[in-house]
Amino acid sequence: MGETVKINDLMVQSGVKFGTSGARGLADDITDRVSYAYTAAFIQYLEETGELKKSGGAIAVGGDLRSSTERIMTAAARAISDQGYEPQCCGILPAPALANYGLINEIPTVMVTGSHIPEDRNGIKYTKKEGEILKHDEAGIKHQAVTLPQGLFDERGMFFVKENPLIPGSEASDLYVDRYLDFFAGNCLNGKKIGVYQHSAAGRDQMVIILSALGAHVTPLGYSEIFIPVDTEAIRPEDVEAAKIWSDEHHFDAIISTDGDGDRPLISDENGKWLRGDVAGILCAAFLEADAVATPISCNSAVEKCGFFKMIYRTKIGSPFVIEAMQQAREEGAKRVVGYEANGGFLTASPIESGEKILSPLPTRDAMILHITILLLSIEKNITISELVSELPQRFSYSNRLKEFPTEKSSARINQLYSGDESRDKETIGAIFGEQFGPVASFDTTDGLRITFQNDEIVHLRPSGNAPEFRCYNEADTESRAVEMNQICMDIMANWR
Known about the structure:
Helix content: 25-40%
Number of strands: 25
Strand content: 15-25%
Number of helices: 16
C-alpha cells in the first residue's frame, strides 16, 4: 500500500500553489514527490471528468531552460507512466509550442516553467485536450487525493533511485515553426532588419528560424547560458539600456524577445524602445481585424478609445480569465475573437483566415503572432513601429512591483484602503494619494483595487498571483506622467512592508 495524499493539504505543506497560470513555488519546494503528486492529480481529474478514459494514450511534457526544470519534468513523466499513459518528451520549447502540439494531437500537456520569475522558483502548467485548464479545473485538481507508490521517495521528497533522463523529440517545436511559416507568406518580412534578444528564452532558436524564413535579416543578441528572469511587464533597466545600444549599433526596424517560456512577447520600435504589452496587443488585434477582444482590467484604456473593436470584455488578470471571456464572446456571436494581456501574451479563439490559408486557434498566450503581425502592420502602412504607436489614442501605462512582499500583507493593505463604504474609502485613499493625484472618481475591484481619479489618472494595486510581489499599474495622458506616478506609488508602497 502506498501513501494517500490530499492535494489541497500538499499545497499548504509545500507552499506550491496555483496562481494566475499554473502551480508555482520555490524550485526546492517542487520536489519529485510534489511534481509527481500534482501530475497524478491532474490525470486523475481528467479521468474523473471523462477527458481521459484510463485506456492509455500520450501526454506531452516540455519545459524551459531553468536548472530545476529537467528534474521536475522527469518526476512528472514518471507520474504519467505510473498512471498508465505514455509520456512524450518534447524537450525545451516555448509553452505555446507545447500547447499547440497538444491541441493538434488532442492530448493533455504538462509544461514545466516559472515563466518570468527568478530561477530559484519554477512551476507546472497543465493543459487539457482543448487548451489551458481554467479556474474550475484548478479546483477539481486541488480536491483530488492521490496514492503515491511506497518506497519511491526519500524523506526529502526526492526519488530514492534517480530516474533515467528523458529523450526529447522535436516534433512539437517543428509544428510550432510550421504554424507560422505555413500561414504567412515566405517573403513577407523582406527588407526588415530584426534583432532577436535570445537570453535564456525557451524559444530563442525558433524565433530566429521563423523570422529568417519569412525573409527578415535577423541578428541574434544576448544569448545566455544562465537563466535570466525577463519580465515583460516590469522590464529590467539593463534590458532597456541594451535595446537602445543594440538599436543604435545595428539600426534595427525592431528588436524582439520573450520571457522565459516564450509565451509573453517583447517588441521594440526602431529606436530600441520596448512597447508596452497592452499597446502591442491592440496593434496585433487590429491587424487581425478582430471583432471581439478580451483583456484584463489592468490593460491600457486605449483599447476602448481607439474604436477598432465591436466588443471588448474586461477580465481579472490571468490567461484563464481571458480564455473564459473569449469563450463568452464566441457564444455571443463574435466571429474573430482574440485576447491579450498587459504582459503581451496574445491568444486567439477563432480561426484566422487569409485567402485560402487558415491559422488555427491557439487559446493560450503566444508571442510569435504578435511579433509577426506588428511587423506586417508597419509594412502594410509603410510607417515605423513608433509611428504605429503614435496613431493610437495617447494613453500611457507603466507598471512595477515590490519583490518579497507577501501576498497576505498586500491583500490586507488593499482591504484597509477599500471597505466598500465609498465616502469613507475616498477619504482614506485621498489621505494617502490625494496630494499627488487629486480627488477619487471611482473604484474597480475586478482584480485588486483600481482607482480612477477625477483627472482620469489611474492607480491599480494588486498582489501578484505567481510570486510574493505587490504590483502597481498606472495610466496617464503622457508617458512621463505614468512613469512619475508609478515611482510615487512605489515609494508609498515601500513604506507598507
